[in-house]
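Q&A FORM
Asked by: J.P.
Topic: structure of Histidinol dehydrogenase

PROVIDED:
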Amino acid sequence: MSTEQFPAGFEGRVRYTKAPGRSSVADTADVVGLVQEILREVQNRGDAAIREYSQRFDKADLDQFEVSAADRQAAVDALEKQTREDTEFAIENVRRFAQAQLGTIQPLEIEALPGLHLGHRVIPIERVGAYVPGGRFPLLSAPIMTIVPGKVAGCDEVVACLPPNAHQAMIAGCHLSGADRIFRIGGAQAIAAMAFGTESVPQVNKIVGPGNAFVNEAKRQVFGPVGIDQLAGPSEIFVVADSTGKPDLIATDLLAQAEHDVRTRVGLITTDEKLALATADEVQKQLETLSTAKIAAESWANYGEITLCADEAAMIAYSDFIAAEHLQVHTAEPREFAKKLRNYGSLFIGENASVVYSDKCVGTNHTLPTMHAGRYTGGLWVGSYVKIATHQWLDDSAVGLVAGPATRQSASEGLEGHRRAAAARVDRKAATFAALTR
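REPLIED BY: S.T.
REPLY: Here is the structure written out as tokens.
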């Protein structure tokens, strides 16, 4: 049984029916030091260090890291007809949604005061690195989610890295999604390669994509010199449900995520004790016939939880505290209930909206915030691949309006250089006017 305590404000309002055995947020202490070593070695020794870590962690000894044009095409040609059609269906849906999102991000020009012109431009990031997790299974949707929005955004170059032992179909997915370059490098060493650049791998401006604890920690440590989208992974799913929830359907969706990784966090938040107990029983029942039960059962035992809430208000408050990556709503009026929720990565409204549909092909991005980050950010989207950069220009009339306040404020702050710069345009114009009127 977990030693985790509910945060202040939830005492007496919620209780565990099934508590998590461990904390997914705290289970990273043994990762930090190793990631520091990997980043340092790759930064100092480049390809040689990548080769050593690829042999050590992936048992891969490659002559070259980059996937050649011929190998890219061979991977595409090797796809089964239906697999290719399904991949292209997903690519088109993700592209369509990203294009619609990009259409909402507009350049801006206003005249805030007479002669004072302010605005911003929407500028695609020049080079983006997309980490494509291989994991235990060939996640064919993974490259679509990180590469397609970058190409829609207009990035000059999207560089993809995926583990050297990733399924060949993953290379095909990267190619069909539009990756400009593809490298067989995985884990923290891939993040280091894209962040610092090596003899083979170009340095990128921003790194996007989910991964395991090592990838996540590497992204955290390189942030600054390069940008990152967010810390995404391991996966999470929570379901909020009232008495209308169906135990078998909820258990199915929880286990669908639990099979991702042994550190996946899954949970049910409900006001109905009967549903809570029935769902717990249903999870155990379905594990008996699930082919991936070895992974899912460990995830459920260590990080699974069922929380019983005193009322709807407590259920909403606790859900917002968790801020789950994937949040499913199984209530009597799901669309109305959804309006009351504010913290989540992506929201799945009604029992027809399975996380799996979004994971694969509906068009919304499956790279989402985890570990409570849904309290302050949303998931990966086309806007993650552009910069909103402001600009300004002033007519002579505007200088007369802003120079006085800027000069006085600078003087009040004791910043003489600022005061001089603020006054310089006014002084210059005054001197010019005096010379002309002599």
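FOLLOW-UP: The CA atoms of residues 161 and 183 lie 5 Å apart.
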